[in-house]
Write a sequence for this structure.
């Protein structure tokens, strides 16, 4: 009986012809645990098959771009934290990199190293949440507890260096706010990194990644082709999951990244086709290991010297001009386009957030999926509504 | 490839449609005629020497009041008086609208910046959704925030704001409304519950209905 149904296909045309059916409009979200925030998907379904998927955004809109036209450059750093609240250090880093490009501010080498360390720690924390909640979407409850336990350690480490637990406001144009604390912080970070590499990642792989149920559930589901990725501007783990070796840390070589040796993991289609949900999941898992490598190198090569530029003024004025600068956030390419008019306030500040572009592809790929696979697909995109709605 | 060389190829293709290459400042950019944007975009994507297969970013810009010395004066809302009334200035915005396209080629690893300007009273230009699908949401956002109309866009609705929102907030002459629905917009905490329990507890006023005649057809027949 089951085989018969599978062979015929639930959504085959003749099946629809026999039984009169019409499309059902279904709201998924905005308050739904599988939409990772206040995302609302307007689905048109026939049975379990999605015929149209329209995301409705804006529930978390805070007009950060308009606010940027009213406050000065240094004050805006705090708003960049609130974009991707799971990896605030990466967002800080993106903004100060753009600001330094527009304002032509020199940054000391030590500050760049500290930035890399905290941004990579933040990336690990963000990926842990992505993997944990992805497992939760698929019905695996236990890995969530394990991964949140490790994330807690990162939050403690970042609290010791910045003073904040979730939102840090740590970087400023021209350096970082505080130096590394002298309470054995560097050694604690190294210990944590070693623990993640040697114990935790193998644990996660045993628990979740190579679990038979998990693989059966995700292999060949939500396959994203390279052409679609380029067309829809997908970046980050989503693009790398489809097998493209692109990483702003390597290709744009900003900050101190060119000094460090790391690999760019890509999807290989280990359990299905290249670019399926499992590939995107696995890219994040492998990136955790690479982030650990970067952190270790950055700490070992940590130079002495100032952690802020000496010419740091209270109020920064940027010369007239415009610049687009992009960095690799945990979700993908996070770009800032700042138009300066010579004053202390940006004339126009546009943020290109990775989740915003990654999510758009669902309008195309979501069509023809089962509703339950759509949940897997949204989970594998790893979106954060804070930076989509801005 | 250098930006200047890319611009030379583009200018060769567009002819009079290419308006100039600005190399001053931090980031170079090319100015082109907005009417030729789809032509230019298709050329940039498909030409074998360029292959710009990704649109990184599309930004709408309101150029009103731009002054290179930082003395620009926007007409935006200045603040609120103590009574909560918005304080505004009388200046009328007249600057152009602009759109900036940031392109990247994954195969050739080069970048390019295109800019167009349209007069404020026209505020429309052709959409590049057919060239890069990612432009779809960026253009919707530019329409939402700046009111730039993209012709040929398949689904030009508001992106982040509600459908019934009035005005386009990132315009420099945007005046913040005093009220949105029943919510005052003065930025102060609500000291009065718009849905107060007294209001809800009141029984709804019902008008006297004439009794239905006995032979009236009942529903469902």
């Amino acid at each position: 009986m089951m085989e018969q149904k599978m062979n015929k296909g639930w959504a085959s045309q003749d099946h629809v012809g026999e039984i009169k059916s019409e499309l059902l409009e279904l709201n998924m979200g905005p308050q739904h645990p599988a939409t990772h925030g206040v995302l609302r998907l307007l689905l048109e379904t026939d049975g379990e098959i999605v015929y149209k998927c329209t995301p409705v955004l804006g529930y978390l809109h805070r007009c950060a771009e308009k606010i940027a036209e009213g406050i000065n450059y240094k004050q805006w750093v705090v708003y960049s934290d609130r974009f991707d609240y799971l990896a605030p250090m990466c967002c800080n880093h993106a903004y100060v990199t753009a600001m330094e490009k527009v304002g032509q501010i020199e940054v000391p080498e030590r500050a760049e190293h500290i930035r890399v360390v905290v941004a990579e720690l933040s990336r690990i924390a963000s990926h842990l949440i992505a993997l944990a909640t992805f497992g939760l979407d698929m019905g695996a409850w236990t890995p969530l507890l394990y991964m949140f336990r490790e994330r807690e350690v990162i939050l403690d480490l970042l609290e010791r260096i910045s003073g904040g637990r979730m939102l840090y406001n740590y970087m400023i144009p021209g350096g970082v706010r505080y130096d590394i604390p002298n309470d054995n912080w560097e050694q604690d970070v190294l210990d944590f990194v070693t623990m993640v590499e040697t114990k935790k990642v193998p644990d996660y792989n045993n628990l979740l990644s190579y679990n038979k149920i998990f693989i059966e559930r995700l292999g060949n589901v939500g396959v994203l082709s390279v052409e679609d990725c380029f067309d829809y501007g997908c970046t980050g783990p989503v693009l790398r999951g489809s097998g493209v070796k692109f990483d702003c840390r390597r290709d744009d070589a900003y900050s101190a990244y060119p000094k460090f040796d790391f690999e760019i993991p890509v999807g290989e289609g280990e359990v299905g086709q290249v670019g399926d949900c499992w590939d995107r999941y696995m890219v994040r898992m492998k990136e955790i290991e690479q982030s650990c490598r970067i952190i270790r190198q950055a700490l070992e090569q940590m130079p002495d010297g100032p952690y802020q530029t000496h010419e740091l003024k209270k109020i920064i004025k940027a010369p007239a001009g415009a610049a687009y600068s992009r960095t690799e956030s945990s979700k993908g390419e996070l770009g800032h386009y700042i138009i300066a008019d010579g004053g202390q306030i940006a004339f126009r500040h546009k943020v290109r957030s990775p989740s915003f572009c990654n999510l758009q592809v669902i309008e195309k790929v979501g069509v023809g999926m089962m509703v339950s696979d759509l949940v897997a697909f949204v989970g594998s995109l790893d979106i954060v509504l804070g930076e989509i709605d801005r | 490839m250098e930006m200047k060389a890319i611009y030379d190829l583009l200018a060769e293709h567009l002819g009079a449609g290419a308006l100039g290459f600005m190399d001053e400042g931090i980031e170079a950019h090319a100015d082109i005629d907005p009417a030729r944007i789809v032509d230019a975009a298709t050329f940039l994507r498909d030409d074998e020497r360029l292959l710009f297969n990704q649109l990184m970013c599309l930004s709408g810009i309101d150029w009103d009041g731009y002054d290179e010395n930082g003395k620009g004066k926007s007409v935006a809302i200045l603040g609120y008086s103590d009574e909560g009334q918005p304080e505004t200035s009388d200046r009328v915005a007249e600057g152009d609208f602009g759109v900036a396209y940031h392109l990247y080629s994954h195969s050739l690893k080069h970048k390019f910046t295109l800019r167009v300007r349209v007069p404020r009273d026209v505020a429309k230009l052709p959409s590049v959704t057919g060239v890069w699908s990612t432009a779809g949401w960026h253009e919707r956002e530019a329409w939402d925030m700046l009111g730039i109309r993209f012709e040929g866009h398949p689904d030009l609705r508001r992106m982040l704001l509600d459908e019934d929102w009035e005005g386009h907030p990132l315009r420099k002459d945007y005046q913040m409304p005093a009220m949105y629905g029943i919510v005052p917009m003065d930025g102060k905490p609500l000291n009065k519950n718009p849905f107060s329990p007294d209001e809800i507890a009141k029984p709804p006023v019902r008008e006297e209905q004439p009794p239905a005649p006995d032979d009236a057809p009942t529903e469902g027949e």
Remarks:
- Helices of chain B lie at 3-14, 37-46, 135-146, 197-201.
- Chain B has a mean pLDDT of 79.
- Residues 3-14 of chain B form the longest helix (12 residues).
